[in-house]
Amino acid sequence: MMLAIHKLPVPVIAKVHGMATAAGCQLVAQCDLAVATDDASFATSGIQYGLFCSTPSVPLVRNVPAKVAMEMLLTGEFIDAQAALEQGLLNRVAAPDQLDAEVEKLVAAIVSKPRTAVAMGKAVVYQHRELGLDAAYQLAGQTMAANMMDADAQEGARAFAEKRQPAWKA
Prior knowledge:
The chain is mainly α and 170 residues long. It folds into 2 domains: 2-110, 2-enoyl-CoA Hydratase, Chain A, domain 1 (Alpha-Beta Complex), CATH 3.90.226; 113-161, Lyase 2-enoyl-coa Hydratase, Chain  A, domain 2.
C-alpha cells in the first residue's frame, strides 16, 4: 500500500485527528500531503517495546530532517501537531471542527489544476528526488518539455496571455 501511494497519479492526503503511531505515522509520512487537528500527535513508538520502526523510518527520513526522524525513531516520543508542521510532516494544522474544511480547501486548490500537470508533477518529484543533481535537472527538463506539449498547458499559456481563467479539458 505504501508504494501504491507514490504511484497513484492523484495526490493522496492524510487527514489526522488523534494519534498516529508506528504504521499510522508511516502512512502520514508516506502520503503526498497531510492535514491534522491541532491536538494530533505523532510517534514511531515501537522502540519503547524493543522493536525499531524500520518501515516507518523509510518515509519519515524522506519527509522530516534526519535528526528529527532519528530522535522520533530512537526515543519513540510523541511530537505534537505544531512540531510536525514545523518539521515538514504536516502541510496544515486546523482546529478539530475545521479539519474537514481545511482538507477541502487543499483538495479544491489541487482539483482546480489540470489533471495531467498534477500527475506529471507528482511523478517527477518522486523520481528526481532519488537522483543526483545533474540527472534530476535532466529529468525535470524532459518532464517540462513534455508538459508544454499538453493541451492544458497550452490553454494555460493562452489564458495567461489573454488575461483570463484557463478552461481545462479534464
